[in-house]
Amino acid sequence: MGWGTAGNITTTSLDGASDDPSVARAHIKAALDEITAIINGRGAASGVASLDSSSLVPAAQLPNELNSSSGQSLTLDPATGIVIIEDVLKLNPITTAAMKALSSPVEGMLVMVSDGDSTITRPAYYSGGEWRGISWYQIL
Q: What is the CA radius of gyration of the chain?
């Protein structure tokens, strides 16, 4: 069930004192059908997400992937300033050349970097105007 469509609501037979009620009946029915579509569209594909008893969108109605539009960065901005990732964060590796080619790096950026010839990658972060690698000498 999809979301309601405003174009399916006609008020021309409802806005004048001399309008014919028999004509208005079909328009009222069409408007009620659109209201029904809105109600049935809650929690449905092409509809609107519902809220649970805590006024949160249920996890089953959240997407598995978030994509930004028109090539913009995607920003998570919680009121606390803290994003919590439970368990594992996976970063797709990029080459050292791709890391250095990133436009406008800022403090705190984190990447998984490879020299391009190796299957071993390592984390790196941007700080003090340069990329800094994180090295571990012990295999966990």
A: 27
| d(C-alpha 99, C-alpha 124), whole Å | 9
Per-domain residue ranges of the chain: 1-62, 85-140
In 3D, which of 90, 129, 138 has the Cα closest to residue 112? 90
d(CA 117, CA 96): 10
Q: Tell me the pLDDT tens digit for each residue of 61-110.
A: 888 888 877 778 888 888 998 989 989 999 999 999 999 999 889 999 99
- Sheet with 130-133, strands from edge to edge, namely 94-95, 110-114, 122-127, 130-133
37 near 1, Cβ under 8 Å? yes
Quick check: 61 and 25 in contact, CB under 8 A?
A: no
